[in-house]
């Protein structure tokens, strides 16, 4: 098994564990905030502990960086892979029984966009699914947990040139004029609103239904948006670009053009089919 395969195997195991915990664990809050100021749910912390314990067993993991940890956890200094992850994205929606997920970015040696070599997310919905994208330039693959406890390959995922869905986040009273006009134009062209508030589910829906746009823009009160570059944005940017789509922060040609200055850095972000991203550039330029 290659080192990356060992990491994917570990992710499969933790995804099964976390999906079990989501069903039965306490939904309460802890007394702590994470580095971006969200009060941590017990489930956020538990998911983080499950993932940490599993990756600690792998010699090929150099360090872990988590949305729920203030600092990096160094494991094996001479190893290659740094894993940046959001242990339970959308966790505040577990109480309403919506689908949530875990997101993993696998970086080689250093935490910068060009060193992201693979991305994976799990989605805990009515079914347990995993999307694995094991290299740049290859299509992401969808797997689904079968009754026998094994993940079975379902299909490769590819975005159409243009989609039909529009998922748009953040408080609208803080949107810029150009964002309001752009989103309105998409609806006028016939796009339908789909937004649950868990980026894993919203991006998964767009990816599986062939295309559209997911955006979390800059707002007047959050000029750098909300979503975190290393754990959330780049893993999905990798998957969307490899699936034939495009990404941007609104001012660049790809989310991979971002410069990382801190671990918990956030950015405005757009992920979608090529048509929607091109249209965004017309409104945003
Ligand atoms: P989380 O990682 O603390 O769950 O927060 C991230 C979530 C994303 O999944 C989602 O896209 C976004 O926050 C929703 O935010 P908003 O309600 O402001 O649109
Ligand atoms: Mg998240």
UniProtKB/TrEMBL annotation:
It catalyses: beta-D-fructose 1,6-bisphosphate + H2O = beta-D-fructose 6-phosphate + phosphate. Binds 2 magnesium ions per subunit. It is found in: Cytoplasm. GO terms for biological process: fructose 1,6-bisphosphate metabolic process; fructose 6-phosphate metabolic process; fructose metabolic process; gluconeogenesis; sucrose biosynthetic process. Mg(2+) 1 binds at residues 67, 86, 88. Its cofactor is Mg(2+). One of its GO terms (cellular component) is cytosol. It comes from the Bacteria. GO terms for molecular function: fructose 1,6-bisphosphate 1-phosphatase activity; magnesium ion binding. Mg(2+) 2 binds at residues 86, 89, 232. Its EC number is 3.1.3.11. Residues 3-155 form the Fructose-1-6-bisphosphatase class I N-terminal domain. The keyword Plastid does not apply. Residues 160-284 form the Fructose-1-6-bisphosphatase class 1 C-terminal domain. It is an enzyme of class 3 (hydrolase). Pathway: Carbohydrate biosynthesis. Its main location: cytoplasm. InterPro entries: FBPase_C_dom (IPR044015), FBPase_class-1 (IPR000146), FBPase_N (IPR033391), FBPtase (IPR028343), SBPase (IPR023079). Keywords: Carbohydrate metabolism, Cytoplasm, Hydrolase, Magnesium, Metal-binding. Homotetramer. Belongs to the FBPase class 1 family. This is Fructose-1,6-bisphosphatase class 1. It comes from Campylobacter californiensis.
């Amino acid at each position: 098994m290659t080192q990356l395969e060992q990491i994917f195997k570990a992710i499969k195991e933790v995804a099964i564990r976390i999906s079990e915990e989501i069903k039965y664990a306490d939904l309460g809050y802890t007394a702590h905030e994470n580095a971006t100021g969200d009060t941590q749910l017990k489930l956020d912390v538990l998911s983080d502990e499950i993932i940490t314990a599993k990756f600690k067993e792998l010699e090929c993991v150099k360090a872990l960086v988590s949305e729920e940890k203030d600092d990096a956890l160094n494991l094996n200094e001479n190893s290659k892979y740094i894993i940046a992850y959001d242990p339970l994205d959308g966790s505040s929606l577990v109480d309403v029984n919506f689908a949530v997920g875990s997101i993993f970015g696998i970086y080689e040696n250093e935490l910068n966009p060009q060193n992201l070599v693979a991305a994976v997310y799990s989605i805990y919905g009515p079914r347990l699914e995993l999307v694995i994208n094991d290299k740049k330039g290859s299509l992401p693959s969808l797997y689904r947990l079968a009754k026998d406890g094994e993940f079975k390959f379902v299909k490769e995922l590819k975005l159409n040139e243009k989609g039909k869905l529009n998922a748009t986040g953040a408080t609208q009273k803080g949107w810029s004029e150009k964002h309001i006009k752009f989103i309105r134009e998409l609806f006028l062209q016939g796009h339908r609103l789909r937004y649950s508030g868990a980026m894993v589910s919203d991006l998964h829906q767009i990816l599986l239904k062939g295309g559209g746009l997911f955006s979390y823009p800059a707002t007047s009160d959050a000029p750098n948006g909300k979503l975190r570059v290393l754990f959330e944005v780049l893993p999905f940017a990798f998957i969307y670009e490899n699936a034939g789509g495009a990404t941007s922060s609104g001012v660049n040609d790809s989310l991979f053009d971002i410069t990382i200055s801190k671990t918990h850095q956030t950015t405005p972000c757009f992920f979608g089919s090529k048509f929607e991203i091109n249209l965004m550039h017309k409104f945003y330029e």
